[in-house]
Design a protein that fits this description.
mainly alpha; globular
Length: 86
């Protein structure tokens, strides 16, 4: 259980930093992080922080195609976590 918690903490930290960087890059009209990369990080476990940051940073929260995949991946993790904790 400690490993799972450490892993989720790490991947959410990495995912959050990259998501915040993408927001900053968008504001400065710089090269962006591909959405596929952001979704891949969510698939790895970073969906929790990205969902929070979508609304706190107001980044990608109006883009339905991004929003829906983030929620799907989050629910998959909610279903998956009890299976790996046992």
């Amino acid at each position: 259980m400690n490993f799972v918690l450490a892993y989720l903490t790490f991947i959410n930290l990495v995912s959050g930093i990259i998501f915040a960087y993408d927001k900053s890059a968008a504001a400065r009209k710089r090269q962006r992080i591909p959405e596929l990369t952001l979704h891949f990080l969510e698939l790895l476990g970073g969906a929790f922080v990205n969902l929070v940051l979508m609304y706190t940073l107001r980044h990608k929260n109006r883009k339905f195609s991004y929003w829906v995949w983030t929620w799907i991946l989050m629910f998959c993790w909610i279903l998956f976590i009890p299976l790996i904790i046992v």
